[in-house]
Amino acid sequence: MNGESLEAVGSFFNDFGGRLAMAAGSCEVHGAASVLVRTGAAWHCPRCLEAEMAADTEAMVLAESRAWRMKVAMIPSKYVGAMFPAATPAQKGVRSTVASFRDFILRERQWATLIMTGETGTGKTLLACEFAQALVSKTPLTVRYITAAGMISEIQATYGSRDGKSSETEIMRFAQYDVLILDEIDAYRATVDADMLLTEIINRRYNEGKPIVAISNQALDGLKQFVGARVHSRLYENSFPCAFTWGDFRRAGAA
């Protein structure tokens, strides 16, 4: 570096240094401190600034976590941000049951089932998706929404796969979400393999204390012929049944 270059660098640092000065002040929380500030700038508490920066970083991390978990949840776009219209005592009752289920699984991570049954169009999926979004927004839990047929198809798609996926990997994935919402649990195409996959996932979740939400057009007692004896038995343990006994919301809206 030649003399002219060194002179330019020195001039830069002298100019930069001239813009800074030590400032003293006192914080009601952290007491007195001296900090380096731009000339003429107000004093600030370094420990308050550090706490503020840490809070901003934490908020950013939490926002990124929520965004990632929302993506993982696979909530159908139709239900994103939608609210279940609890207008009648019966509808308020199912919302209360969902809240009880939420409190139960948050109090102690253990197996539990929220069983939503009722006719088509009564808001079962809507309320389940509202519940899922609340968990993603207010807790660190991972949630996944999917139909039983969709879940089974995703696992079966790995049979003979050459892209590195395996049925075991997919089974483990569905077994490990903190909360799994299985819609239309009675409506998958029943085969020996499909029955085995559903039973295996339910059993693994049961053994690991991972709760599920099961949605069906069938009453709980009538589900046995669709999901098998072992799954049906699991559904009764720590169960929170919600019977959607009113009419089709969509028909009411079209009337």
From TrEMBL:
Residues 110-237 form the AAA+ ATPase domain. One of its GO terms (molecular function) is ATP binding. It comes from the Bacteria. Pfam families: IstB_IS21. SUPFAM superfamilies: P-loop containing nucleoside triphosphate hydrolases (SSF52540). PROSITE patterns: SIGMA54_INTERACT_1 (PS00675). Signal peptide: none annotated. Gene3D superfamilies: P-loop containing nucleotide triphosphate hydrolases (3.40.50.300). This is AAA+ ATPase domain-containing protein. The lineage of its organism: Bacteria, Pseudomonadati, Pseudomonadota, Betaproteobacteria, Burkholderiales. GO terms for biological process: DNA replication.
